Amino acid sequence: MTPETFLQMVEQMSGLLLEREQGIYSFAHLTIQEYLASVHIREQGLEATLLLHLGESWWEETTRLYCAQTDATRIIEACLKYETHSVVHLNLAIECQEESLKIQPKTKLRLDQVLAQGAEDANPTRRSIVAEALLRRRLKEIVLIKEGVYYDISPITCIEYQLFLEEKKRDCQPDHWKSKSFHKGDAHTPILGIRSSDASAFCRWLTERYGSTWQYQLPITEDIEELDKLMMSNDERIGYWVDNEKPFVRLQREPIALFQRNEYFFPNYMLDVDQATQLANSPVLTRIGYIELFLSSILNRSAPIGERLNKIAEMKVKLLESIRTHAYILDPKHSLADALEKLLGSNQNINTDKILELTHDLEQKRKYAFLDFLRIFEVSFEVIDTAANKEYILVRMFLPLLRRLSRWRQKRQDATSVLSKLVKIYLTLYFLQGRLENTLPPCEGIVVTKKKY
Fold first, then answer.
1. Is residue 320 part of a domain?
2. DSSP-assigned beta bridge partners for residue 24
């Protein structure tokens, strides 16, 4: 059998080879070609060829496959010569280290130092190179969780989020940061204190920058249970935003029975300033003019922290006055107003569980008020139906009563809705105050997922 006949047979029977041009064949799957090329380079001692083509995308996979079969020291050392100005070379060095059969300890230590020091470097350009190399590695390591959907298994770090901040040039930094950069020493720790809108914006930026055929987004509720099994951290103090009806989950969601002044753990609450903004813009609160004005100043991350804290203190006083006013509508005896003021007025240890339970009760009372109204309506018609002069009773007595009941019901419903929203906004300010004063640790992080367009 001639070589030509053999090649034609392989092409026709297995599909491994394709005739690209007359008499010129190549592998149908590039990976096979790259692997065999790496074996040939290793066996023939042609490492210099790889060194000559470092950084070229055509040779990247072959270089990685070569390092998986032998000592990767010279390849990584050559990549590190470019680490001050090349993301591609630094990223290749990271991948070769992870896949290498062998690497000299000194070279591994040097690469670790480059990543550690570069992430904390005062030079933004050098720091961005390291950040992008780390982010590229993360996106390549995302795990398949179900058909067509891939999940990251650790929260986004400060250095990775910093790249987003510097490229977008917008105020998306956590509220508790005193500048637009992470604190020294925090480069490789999870980014925390992120608003839900910022987490979504980060995913859109990933899609714009690295997407191509992929779309990056926040996790969805139905995948949380499976994701929790894969997560590399189970720190109950932190969590991540979810793009679904359940907006936030913690890495460890077991009940936490700890509530002290010096150690804050609020398992049923997180800082969601975007929700507070939505509440302030709701029709029932637009009549209370000061809320939207104050919130816009308080949530302005470009303003000095001291100025924001002063605005929070002023707004909390006004909110307590409004809360008491609307509580009186629901309970003229002041017991509800007194209870709320007692719960909210303490800056030492607000019991969020009780407050959230109370706001839930308010919503239930709103439903009960409507049911009571329907019952009165039903009984009234029963009375009319048995009366001798139905028309007189209906026009002279029942309709005026019905109008009064309707106004009473609407007033109670409005007061309940307003009161519930005011309490939630007050709680948001309380938590934000703790963040700005560094007495309440942040917990809201980012975990990303990707799927094909």
1. yes
2. 21
